[in-house]
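queue> pop job 88
queue> type: inverse folding (structure -> sequence)
queue> payload:
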């Protein structure tokens, strides 16, 4: 008798749990349908240029994917090309990399478009930077006669020369939905063949779903370090990958902070990190949201040159940091500070109390060191 009652209770409990789970699922689906954002997404959630995780055109995209899509659309707008160019470019990246800046592929294929350095697409440093990769794809696309009126998938195949030519056309519908999400203003006419136009930063920024999410949020303290110059006697790391990334980052000192910028003329904080590690041929994700999980975890005691250092920034939180810099060694961090200051060098000690994550990307990890390693370095 007691066993029977227990069985009925368990069954009733299971029904209730199932009902509550279904109700929660329906509620989340309704929220997604109304807002277009997945739980945790949006400018106030996992953020990024593209507005974070979203359901667009019936497909779910994470923060890195929406950021890369917004970047591609912004570049097409910069160049005064029509939406059709953005649709072709994004459909290509959906097929080639699922809109993720990957460091592997068939033979020497790399990056969003899986471009091969051995086939003249550019160096590993270039093709793993989404800005360069998008521009060279567009260069080859617009060089095709009649590219804008080719059947779905045909222009992408003509550029990519894939062994699987039928994969591009089915991805034009989700690509078109992404383009509609990020495009601002009227469509552009198909231009006559001409040299690529100079970027228009103001126009490109119209494609970004989220506004500039703030700068470092840590006041510049008095320091012996010149924030816009490499200290005399500075010694870069010996590891080739770390050396390439650190040297590139330091070479950008004094350049402007540009929301969404990945170089060469301006950077935001995560764009500088992406471009610096691309220089070493090591692709990392776009955006602080994705970069905070790149590589492997490190600590202040084991920090190494090239490691990414995250702090909340002016609009972030410990669990969702919005600002990132690179530790360059000698107790210093380089970062795109904010729109009024640009790319600067700071003592890591200025950030010490705010650090939420440290990520080791490549090269040898740092060795455990005393707390003095975080002290301001002398030139």
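queue> result:
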């Amino acid at each position: 008798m007691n066993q029977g009652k227990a069985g009925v209770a368990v069954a009733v409990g299971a029904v209730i749990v199932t009902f509550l789970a279904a109700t929660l699922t329906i509620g989340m689906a309704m929220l997604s349908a109304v807002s277009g954002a997945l739980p945790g997404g949006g400018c106030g959630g996992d953020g990024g240029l593209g507005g974070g995780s979203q359901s667009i055109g019936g497909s779910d995209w994470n923060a890195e994917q929406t950021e890369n899509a917004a970047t591609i659309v912004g570049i097409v707008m910069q160049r005064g090309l029509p939406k059709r160019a953005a649709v072709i470019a994004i459909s290509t990246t959906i097929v080639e990399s699922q809109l993720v800046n990957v460091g592997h592929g068939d033979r020497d294929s790399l990056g969003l478009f899986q471009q091969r350095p051995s086939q003249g697409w550019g160096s590993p440093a270039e093709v793993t930077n989404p800005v360069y990769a998008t521009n060279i794809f567009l260069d080859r696309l617009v060089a095709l006669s009649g590219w804008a009126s080719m059947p779905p998938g045909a222009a992408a195949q003509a550029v990519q020369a894939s062994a699987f030519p039928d994969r591009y056309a089915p991805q034009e519908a989700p690509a078109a939905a992404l383009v509609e999400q990020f495009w601002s203003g009227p469509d552009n006419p198909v231009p006559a063949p001409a040299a690529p136009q100079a970027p228009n930063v103001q126009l490109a920024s119209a494609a970004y779903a989220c506004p500039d999410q703030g700068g470092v949020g840590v006041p510049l303290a008095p320091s012996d370090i010149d924030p816009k110059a490499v200290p005399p006697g500075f010694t870069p790391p010996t590891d080739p990958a770390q050396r390439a990334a650190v040297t590139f980052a330091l070479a950008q000192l004094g350049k402007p902070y540009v929301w969404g910028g990945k170089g060469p003329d301006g950077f935001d904080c995560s764009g500088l990190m992406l471009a610096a590690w691309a220089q070493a041929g090591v692709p990392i994700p776009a955006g602080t949201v994705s970069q905070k999980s790149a590589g492997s975890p490190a600590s202040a005691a084991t920090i190494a040159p090239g490691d990414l250092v995250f702090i909340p920034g002016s609009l972030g939180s410990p669990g969702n940091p919005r600002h990132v810099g690179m530790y360059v060694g000698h107790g210093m961090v380089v970062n795109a500070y904010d729109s009024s200051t640009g790319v600067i060098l700071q003592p890591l000690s200025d950030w010490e109390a705010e650090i939420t994550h440290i990520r080791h990307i490549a090269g040898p990890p740092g060795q455990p060191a005393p707390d003095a390693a975080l002290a301001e370095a002398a030139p």
